[in-house]
Amino acid sequence: MPSLLKRISFRVAGTNNERTFTLSSVSDDGHFISLRPLIKPAGEKEVEFPFEWAFAGTNKDVDVTKVDETNVRQVFRMAFDSNVYLKVPNASSDPVDTNWKTWDSGVLQESGTIFPFGDDRAVEFEEIWQPIDIESGKLILTDSAAANGRSIVLKVTNSNKYGIIIVTGKWIQGLLGDLDDSSIKGLNFIRFVQNSDGSHQKLINYGSNVDQFPTKFDSLEKGETIDVNGVSWEVLEYHV
Amino acid sequence: MPSLLKRISFRVAGTNNERTFTLSSVSDDGHFISLRPLIKPAGEKEVEFPFEWAFAGTNKDVDVTKVDETNVRQVFRMAFDSNVYLKVPNASSDPVDTNWKTWDSGVLQESGTIFPFGDDRAVEFEEIWQPIDIESGKLILTDSAAANGRSIVLKVTNSNKYGIIIVTGKWIQGLLGDLDDSSIKGLNFIRFVQNSDGSHQKLINYGSNVDQFPTKFDSLEKGETIDVNGVSWEVLEYHV
């Protein structure tokens, strides 16, 4: 069942805050994308690249294990990670081992430990996630991450690019990176929400190649490949 | 400006969780009520009284001081506190000194220290609050606690009762306690949300005297007193 999670808070090294408008999309088959734009970029560097982080992967990039009725272990290997792509200092491509606890309210508490400064310096983090109703274009809270609604995933097949787009209900998030580059010029992100007339409200439309994202998701078939301005997208998942 | 805040998480003594569906209403003039029903009461005691806590007060019961652009200090003296009323062990009627920090996302981080076990045993707590759009009957996230919309407050004048009801937009929360009692039999709580046809969806309707809450808020006047099944309610605030 597809889900859309809004991050409410991010605690790291003892400090709790939320500087981003982060949404994570997870498809029915377990493919994922998380876009984390800064709400109020501060300073030249953040204005130039107003994202805390962005990453994505397919269900082959995450190991999900049920621990008990309320806890799930998820070990992520990011297939695409903006920090690694941009060679941010201390960016790590190690797997991220996380525990997801579902509270009575339906809110999800993700906790884990990362080692950006080496194996002997663990940094604990906690992220709190509020499930959002994917069938509304407004940010309506729900008490369950699982929902019905369309779940569509396309992935780029060109060898010099990494790209994925995930549609969950009315919400669309996509990431496209040029693998011949490693600067912000090679990055593209979109976050669209479908209006009632079928048009898209563009909440994020970042990068010089945003016209290479697919924007029509009717009558596709799993396995087919479509061309969008020179980029080939394969339909990995198509549940409508 | 009236506001409605949904608690997302409650961290106390190092443990973060959310077992309740807590909404706090704050009126335009600063009167307040917080109802904290348990979502999944566990065990006989919780089933008998399925609330973590409930409290309310007027703007005379809270001192609000602006600290800086993003921080506000609020010192609460609860005019009515279910824990004190029920003589819960370690319940304290001391003022609660809190700091409210507004994050870039609009989410509010409340933090403070309480002393339920005496002055030498401080217990730190943190509550994270998501502002909700008061003009919708659905739980729609907003990025600002301040909102337009009606703000109406009535307070009981009978000397043997404490009662307050706060209307913020479509959301109504009320508390009524019999001061001649100190058991759960003396407590009444309501949380209604107005449907588009003007009727009320009763999300909480707890206690044997819920028929003593006012349910019509049209054409009242500040200062007037209305009778509801033998209880006198004075209109403290009336902004429509």
UniProtKB/TrEMBL annotation, chains A, B:
Compartments, as annotated in UniProt: Cytoplasm; Nucleus
Cytoplasm is among the record's keywords: yes
Entries under Pfam families matching the protein: HRI1
Keyword Transport: no
CDD domains per record: HRI1_C_like, HRI1_N_like
GO biological process, one term: protein targeting to membrane
Family membership: Belongs to the HRI1 family.
Protein's name according to its UniProt entry: Protein HRI1
Organism this protein belongs to: Kazachstania africana (strain ATCC 22294 / BCRC 22015 / CBS 2517 / CECT 1963 / NBRC 1671 / NRRL Y-8276) (Yeast)
Taxonomy of the source species: Eukaryota, Fungi, Dikarya, Ascomycota, Saccharomycotina
Gene name for this UniProt entry: KAFR0A04760
